[in-house]
Amino acid sequence: MTRLAVFASGEGTNAENLIRHFQNHPMARVVMVVSDKAEAPVIEKAKRLHVPVHVLSADEVLSGKKMNDVLKQSDIHLIVLAGYLRKIPGEVIEQYPQKIINLHPALLPFFGGKGMYGKKVHEAVIRSGVKESGITIHFVNEHYDDGEIIFQKSIPVEADETSESLQKKIRELEWKYYPEVIDKLLKGVPES
What we know:
Blueprint: E1 2-7, H1 13-21, E2 28-35, H2 41-48, E3 53-55, H3 58-63, H4 65-73, E4 78-81, H5 90-95, E5 100-104, H6 118-128, E6 132-139, E7 149-156, H7 163-187
Parallel strand pairs: 1-2, 1-4, 2-3, 4-5
Antiparallel strand pairs: 5-6, 6-7
Helix pairs in contact: 1-7, 6-7
């Protein structure tokens, strides 16, 4: 059984979706949620679903040692970022090569990098005038939103699109495809 840790900093809608998806899964379980914010709504969602939560302070995240210790104690095999806003320390990336994945709410390499998350991404997409957006699922490396791309799915950006309407469409893609891509990774099937 593959043991998953979901990292989240905010509302936790994707984290909740992943926890529910893997509750009775034959190959994997979400056994822990890690957050960098003690007041994040994701914590209550995880607790309601009986998933242990570890809150790591900014200093603990920066050093990487505490994060590695927490992950090792729970025998984590795969780390799934779901709205986690802090950079993963190099020490953790070294311990989990090609075992940390992230979901970004745009088509990388565009609209990514430090400070590009949530509504900020959708606002930038609309301001730019591009005709499509989507999601990118990628491996995490030492740079924000720069790791090897595993999967992308695009949708059109309508002429009258707002950041709220785009966010809603992107969230539907996230909820559908993030669990599916993780399932395929667990089975070792490459994405096409």
